[in-house]
Amino acid sequence: MEKIRWEKMAEDTKKFFVAPQALYQNFEKEGGYLEPLIYIFIIYVLVFILLLLHLFLKVPIAFSLPHLSFNLFVLIFILPIEIIIGSFISTAIAHLIWIFLDSKESFKTSFKCMASFAPLTLIGIVAGYIPFLGRWLGGIACIFIGFYYIVLASVYVHNIDRERATKVFLLIAIVLALINITTNIRFTISNRKMQKQQEEIERKYDEWNRKMEEDYKKQMEEYQKNLEKVYPSQSPQENSATE
Known about the structure:
By secondary structure, the protein is an all-alpha fold. It has helices at residues 6-18, 20-25, 34-58, 65-100, 107-116, 120-128, 134-156, 162-230, 236-242.
């Protein structure tokens, strides 16, 4: 069974942030799939926890027993499956691009490269917490920082010409950024429409509530007038007592 080197994972993560070029210049191509899969899973567990904390701060009910049970179910059963499937699909796409760029490396090497990009998700999550611009910056930051890292991997791991790799992956990054911006614009428009609908519902409810209060007030006034007609010599309090 493949040995999991926890210290190397920690060291590679540190290099990813402080010395990325050194990481890919001395990139280890040997080994199996288990270690990179576990590495990806650890990163995504951290991401999942950050998202849960963010959700808890906004919607405390999310940590009620039913919601917490569901989140734990997702963490234990759904997330690992999504990670495995998503990792191999994304690697297959990247590997085809690297082959197009004349890479001679194996699919396993491409998989290890893609696994090394996992901390980018943390960058995207942290950037997403920036007020007002977070949703916009999070995705775009991941795309263009990821562009830098994938060019490094292309040059130092796959031995691809830097200029060629830069042109191809920059084009892909621009397309992804445009898709991200378009999606955010649509989301913003949709969100504003929902807010307007909510405001309209609240306005109509306030109007209905005010009308009900006015009708009730009129009915009470009419009731008092009728009492005065029936019992003209008694006060309203006495009328009520008499009834």
